[in-house]
Write a structure and sequence with these properties.
The protein has about 280 residues and is of the alpha+beta class. It has helices spanning about 5-20, 40-45, 125-130, 130-135, 145-155, 160-165, 175-185, 200-215, and strands spanning about 25-30, 50-55, 60-65, 70-75, 80-85, 95-105, 110-115, 120-125, 260, 265-270. The chain binds a DNA duplex (16 and 16 nucleotides) through loops.
Length: about 280
DNA sequence: AGATCTACCTGGTTGC
DNA sequence: TGCAACCAGGTAGATC
């Protein structure tokens, strides 16, 4: 499931392949994968040139110039199973190939998504300014200072992990990197944010940035579906200390790792290295 | 307003 | 073996 590091890896790969390329044709095979009207999407992007490929949170963003010279923005949210893959050959017509972009160098970009949660969206400059998702998106974790990071959580009563997953609080963190960074910082996922000592919040800032940087360097984490734009798997899943390891021994203290639902998500942690009690509901 | 819960979707896994 | 039940999870939208 692509989170910030995976989308960053995809973005870097696609930048080299797509920048300065022109989209000659757009084939939307499943209209549900396009946010808004699929025909408008097709018309706007046909003949548009990709100027820049980048990332914001978990969103992959392309800046383009349309055939008529207008600035356009193409966004992809991969959600859980979305993939963006380039190829020399026209992609096969699988049931999960939802959008195919023909490029002016004879190559192809396809949006592939088994679970159909992901989407593509094409917006004009005016539209993107008012797009609620981008408008309310929190800061980039790698751009945050320690003080800025600590301020995000001060006085908040929500569970620390719920806030990490909340994209309006901080962008790009999903279940994997939330669990991994909380483990490294020694904070139980269900701890209320305002009860986490300042020193531990400061440590979390550093560990979160480390985990993200290490994952990017390892080409991302491949759980089930993730591959980069060239179809290659990542390697960071081999470095997980808690995520997906319920019942296995902690790599630090050898206690058996526990899991519970926090913010509706399975959360794996070490009750010895991440002490704290889950609040019992009345 | 902040916090919490559910629906969306489908392939893979588990249990009987 | 066959098949139902459950699980994974990011975000929108609803509810408290």
């Amino acid at each position: 499931m692509p989170e910030l590091p995976e989308v960053e890896v995809i973005s870097r790969g696609l930048a080299g392949e797509l920048e300065e390329r022109r989209i000659t044709e757009v084939n939307v095979r499943y209209a549900g994968s396009v946010q808004g009207d699929a025909e408008t999407f097709r018309k706007r992007l046909s003949g548009a040139e990709v100027k820049k490929v980048h990332r914001r949170g978990k969103l992959l963003l392309m800046d383009l110039q349309s055939a008529s010279g207008e600035a356009l923005f193409l966004g992809f949210h991969l959600k859980m199973t979305g993939r963006l893959i380039t190829s020399d050959e026209r992609p096969e017509d699988t049931p999960h190939t939802h959008i195919i972009f023909d490029l002016d160098d004879g190559r192809f970009l396809q949006f592939h998504d088994v679970r159909k949660f992901g989407y593509a969206v094409c917006l004009t400059q005016d539209e993107i300014k008012d797009w609620p998702f981008l408008k309310t998106l929190g800061p980039e974790p790698l751009d945050l200072s320690q003080a800025g990071f600590v301020a995000l959580f001060s006085g908040r009563r929500g569970q620390i992990k719920a806030l990490l997953l909340n994209q309006t609080v901080i962008a790009g963190i999903g279940n994997i990197y939330a669990d991994e960074s909380l483990f490294r910082a020694g904070i139980a996922p269900f701890t209320q944010a305002h009860k986490v000592p300042k020193a531990k919040l400061k440590a979390l800032h550093g560990h979160l940035q480390d985990v993200i940087k290490e994952a990017i360097a390892a080409n991302g984490s491949s759980i089930r579906d993730y591959v980069d734009s060239g179809g290659n798997a990542g390697a960071f899943q081999n470095d997980f200390r808690v995520y997906g390891r319920k019942g296995e021994p902690c790599r630090v203290c050898e206690s058996t790792l526990q899991s519970s639902k926090v913010a509706g998500r399975t959360s794996t942690y070490c009750s010895h290295c991440q002490p704290g009690k889950q609040a019992t509901k009345p």
